[in-house]
Amino acid sequence: MRFLPPDEPGKAEQKAEFIELRAKGLSLSKIAKRLGVAKQTVCNWNTELEEEIATLKAFELEALQERYYLLKEARIKLLGEQLGRINKEILSRPLGGVETAKLLDLQLRYYSELRAEFVDPRPLSEAEQAELKALR
Predict the structure, then answer these.
(1) By CB neighbour count within 10 A (0-12 exposed, 13-18 middle, 19+ buried), where does 45 fall?
(2) Per the domain annotation, does 40 fall within a domain?
(3) Cα–Cα distance for residue pair 115/64, rounded to 1 Å
(4) Count of domains in the chain?
(5) What pLDDT shows up at residue 6?
(6) What proportion of the chain, given as a percentage, has pLDDT over 90?
(7) Directed axis angle between helix 28-35 and helix 11-23, to 10°?
(8) Within this chain, do residues 52 and 82 fall inside the same structural domain, yes or no?
(9) For residue 48, what are the domain limits?
(10) Among 6, 49, 116, 117, which one is most buried in terms of CB atoms within 10 A?
């Protein structure tokens, strides 16, 4: 975050709130009204603080993806846990009934979903490592 001159008390807090609200997708008009500042002021802030807004948006999106199991690691974990429960239930049943057939079908589907999540682990190239360091 940028530092503001000491003769602008409260402006840093307003800008921080602006960044949060903008990252959450609120319109400039709504933000101006909520913060009690002119629309032109929030337009200027939008340009000035574009990088900070984009960064916070990325963090917010990642948090949502994690919350709703959209990140690969979370999906793999969830699918694996479900598959474990299905396997345990299948082992506890005789293999003759209709319900067991449904469980076997689920088992195959979960294995297929897990296979689709497979990523071949490989070390990052020097360029990729440099790119990650630049993001920090």
Answers:
(1) buried
(2) yes
(3) 24
(4) 2
(5) 46
(6) 21
(7) 150
(8) no
(9) 11-64
(10) 49
In 3-state terms, what secondary structure has residue 71?
A: coil
Tokens of 136: 């920090």
Q: Identify which of 45, 21, 20 has the alpha carbon closest to the alpha carbon of residue 31.
A: 21
103 has pLDDT over 70: yes
Per-residue confidence (pLDDT) for residue 98, from 0 to 100: 55
pLDDT, tens only, 55-98: 888 888 888 777 766 777 878 888 889 889 988 888 887 755 65
Tokens of 16: 């921080």
Sign of torsion over alpha carbons 25, 47, 41, 29: negative
Look up residue 121 and give its DSSP letter: -
Query: Does residue 48 belong to any structural domain of this protein?
Result: yes
Rounded Cα–Cα distance for residues 13 and 36 (Å): 13
> Which amino acid makes up residue 79?
L
Q: What mean pLDDT, rounded, does the chain reach?
A: 82
* Residues 56 and 99 occupy one common structural domain: no
Are residues 56 and 80 located together in one domain of the fold? no
Domain assignment present for residue 106? The answer is yes
Does residue 25 lie in a domain region? yes
